[in-house]
């Protein structure tokens, strides 16, 4: 059994209240931080090797060190709680059950960044969690952890929650900043990066919920101790939200480096494939990462057992690997049509494209149309190459990574499951009959 | 255009509290939360009058409100039923049978996704991932998540709403606007 940090107290009755959270040692990291220099807090986070838990995996301490210290403008910390990546539901779980863990992390992180105003941008659909966070923040003000002169340290911090209103693109940090300014969530060109010019053109750090909630543990344990958990450059624990055709869907905290075989099949985690079906494919890090067939997921192309870590999951590059991403772990049994699943994902990206960049705005729409044509029984063999061509012309040609996120699922499905596309196209008269798709898969 | 709409006193108090969260001159940041309040206060959708009213509260141009309201999927740009049934249609929910749930609801309510029942009770809407993939299929009504949906569960949820809901249900629940 791995080390539990983030979820250690998640099942303690009343842990969402200040008094119980405090009894369990909550806010100790703030007490510790306030006695340190802000730069020393940054240094601990650097030593911990903590990487952004939203999907990109960028080293958190390094991101913090980019913040512009010379400007007279105020610094801002913004928490990205716009959890919208299909397959990902760890932040919702954490905030709903342990709101004070996020508040505590926001205080320590703001102190490290010399930020005196901080916002939690939460997706609008989670307005019920917005109210849970507001309550926790009010309790923290009351207990003297927020406001002026926190615990007599001279450090001031105001913390607010801000709701979005339904837009996947606002999970991209500059789209989020635009949205927080009361605009459409159109991502900005970079540079300048938010650490130089972010919210209201002031230095801003945007971090994921889980990243910020991990900071108190880094501080309590010390960066070096935290770095001892995990493997290589994948340090610490990670929340994985597991869903799809498994026996035990849910949010699990793992030590990075856990063998994927154990995570998927052990009763402590997913418990294996449900209904005694066969494991066919997986999207292991949220809908944007490449899909892998079962055998390439369990074992790398070199024949090594794969681990739940940033490096191991991406071993082999996109030819034979994938990404840890956000930890959205979507498991598919052999009843699933990969092409139909791809159509569903592609429709999602088309719906969520902000429309700024032509390759993404037009390309996602064309991919959706071509895929619909294939699953509707009107596909041609040349459509597979057309899809390949369109995705290749989106990738790397857009302001933000949504274009890449839309291209990768298409490329990986063709790479690993081309035969399924071909079968659908060859048998299109049958595809038009309602049950054929199911028959084909089960055959 | 002169508007007759006005927030309740409770909502206005909340508006002023929200605007103060942002630095002076940056009151436009309050736009998204205010539009949620407007939708809650003015019947579940954003009429041009409601958007103009919000523009006046924030001292911004109406067009700045329109361009934002039309960008975000939670804002309804036309009238909706008392209960908006927002069923997730994305990947993980689809894997667990969301398509069948939507088809069942369309048949049961005798409307297509995007439409409202003749009695004005229900609007059926398909939405993208609600971050509840472990308990798929999922539907949201106001601030409530209904998880692990089955046809039987849908029946009892709809019966319950039909019997008990008198006022429109909003994402920003009315109980949070009061005091």
Topology:
The complex is a heterodimer of chains A (443) and B (179).
Chain A: H1 18-23, H2 28-34, H3 38-48, H4 60-65, E1 75-81, H5 90-97, H6 99-113, E2 115-122, H7 127-142, E3 158-163, H8 173-180, E4 204-208, H9 209-221, H10 223-228, E5 230-231, E6 234-235, E7 237-244, E8 250-255, E9 258-259, H11 260-265, E10 279-283, E11 292-293, H12 294-298, E12 307-308, H13 310-313, H14 317-320, E13 328-333, H15 338-352, H16 358-375, H17 382-394, H18 402-426, H19 428-431, H20 436-442
Parallel strand pairs in A: 1-2, 1-4, 2-3, 7-13
Antiparallel strand pairs in A: 5-6, 7-8, 9-12, 10-11, 10-13
Helix pairs in contact in A: 2-6, 2-9, 3-6, 5-6, 6-9, 15-16, 15-18, 16-17, 16-18, 17-18
Chain B: H1 9-19, H2 31-41, H3 48-58, H4 62-69, E1 83-88, H5 91-95, H6 98-109, E2 122-127, E3 139-141, E4 144-146, H7 151-164, H8 174-177
Parallel strand pairs in B: 1-2
Antiparallel strand pairs in B: 1-3, 3-4
